[in-house]
Structures are given as C-alpha cells and as structure tokens.
Amino acid sequence: MTDERETRVGKRSIRLAVAWATLLALMSAGMATATPSTDARSEHQRIVEFWTHERVAQAVPRHFVLDPGRGFVPAAKPDNPGGGKPGGGGDGDGDSGLVTGASWTSGGAVVATTGKVLFQMGGSFYVCSASVVTDGSTADADSLILTAGHCAYDETNRAFATNWLFIPDYDSAPAPLTASGSFCADTEYGCWTAEALTVHTGYASAGGFNDTAVVHDFAVATVYGGGHSREAKLDGTVGTQDIAFTEIGLGNLVYAFGYPAAQKYKGNDLVYCAGPVGTDPNTGGATYRIECGMTGGSSGGPWFSPFTEGSGTGTLASVNSYGYRGDSGMYGPKFNANTQAVYTTADGATADTIVP
Prior knowledge:
Order of helices and strands: HHHEEEEHEEEEEEEHHEHEEEEEEEEEHE
Number of helices: 8
CATH class: Mainly Beta
C-alpha cells in the first residue's frame, strides 16, 4: 500500500514538474514577444537614416510659453532667458547657490543619461530633451526614456509624434550638422528609436496646450536595441536615473537639465539650473516652478530632487514643460499616480498608447 502510494505521488510529482516546465516555457515565450521583430529593427534603421544632418539642422524647439490674451503658444525663443556662471559643482548666482542656465561641467552619470530628442509632427521637425529612467527589470529587452508629453504627442491634432529618436550624451560629441554621412554615427553612442510612445489621456484629450495639458505634460518612450551596433541596450550602455511619483517638498533644491537651442544657447551643450522649487499660482499650485532661463529645446529635460553633484545621479521628479512670456521661471508637472501609470504601461510596450 505504501509503495503504491509513493508510486502515485512520484508520478504526480513528475506530472507537476512537466506542467511547471510547460508553463515556464509558455511564460518565456510570452515575454519574448516584447523583443522587437525583424520589421521593428528595419523601422529603427529607417528612422536612423531619416535623420540626415540636413533634417537635424531644420529641427526647431517645441516649447510653449503663456502669452497674455493668446494662451499657451509655441515659442522657440522665450523672452528674458536667465543666466548663470558657466560650470558645475555649485557655480551660480553669487553666493546663493542659484544657477539659472549654465553649462554643466561636473561630469557624472547625468551627462550620459540626458540626451536630445528629435521627432516629426506633421511636416515639421522638432527637438526636445529627455532622460533614461530605470525600468522595472534589468532583464527586460527594453529601456525607458522620460520626456515631456508635448515632445511625444501633438495635443492639437491628437496624433503621436513620428520618427522619434533619442541621442544620449550629445554633450560629448555634438554632430556637426554640415557633415555628410550618418548623423547618428557621428554621435558618442549612436541613437535609439521609439518602439512605442506612451502618454496620459489627460494630455492627449486636452485639445491644446492648456491648463489640463500642463498637469499631464509627461511621456515615456520605449526603446529596444540601438546605438552604433544597432543591438545595444540603452540602459546597459549609458545607465539610468531613478524616478519617484511623489511631490517635491516646497523649497527643496531641484536640478534641471536640458539642451536649450534658442537665443544664446546652441543646442549642443548640456545646460542646468539649480534652485528651490515653488509652484505656479496660475494653475492653483498644480505645477512646479523654479528660476531657470533655459530656452526652447530643453523641454522634456529632467528635474532631479534630490541630486548628488559628485556622481551626477538623482531621483527624477519632473521635466521641463513650459514658461511665461517675460518671466524667468521654468515650470514642470507634478509626478503622481498618473505619471506612474504611464511609466508602468510603457515598460515592455510595443505600440503607441494613451493611458486612460
């Protein structure tokens, strides 16, 4: 009797083992579907080839300022850009520690993880900024890039951007726009293209760049293999920055980075601002404000709080979003559960998505 029971248990164990093996194989097959197909790799190469030096030179900043009487309007050249002492490591406005738009020279991870974004909306070419963000699993085939919603989605015509391209660490090797050959090949690490763009419905359904849009002005791009080898994983190549979905304490120090490309800025230098954070009274305190004179092209660039200058690492807490005509501030959305939903949906995405 005992031998018979042990035999039955043994057979049951074998059947369970086979079932588990089958389940694991099915799960692995399911996870493998996140890996881009041959068609996706071809699309990556098409986008890389699309961005010739000539087209990159035509790209203009997609940046918004509030113009009294007209509302938020596109403006590549905001009024009254701020200044700051060149350099990193705390150089700024006198002894206050305030930096309102200076070249970052202290190195660290932020140089590699912050990059330029190129994309097309309709017949126009645009430039923004973005940052590589830590995703849910280092074993995933994808990497995630955080930027502004208006750098991924046309809120007026309700359409996702096309030909979306990210160039990390553009500061180290700005590609000369008069050169022949491949633009991406002339950059430090090469380029990564978006397999998917994810935005929140609060932005996508706003109907224009208005008070509703600015509260939801964040987006995440999902990228797979790229770089000079066309197969390199982005976060494994340049690293990542952590992200938090809670509010920054008022008065806390914030570091903002980007590639401004209007007025005194040329779009080929990583620029930063540093100062205490406040809120925008015009949105009822629903968005942040810092003193910062970065111009168009910096949109989508990361805000960190806290941030460690020595290592160039921090926690992503907002992005450069908009400004006001005649005001020296930069404004950004508050990260919250809606931001987290966009981030979570983007992890492993293979198609453009609006998060409800």
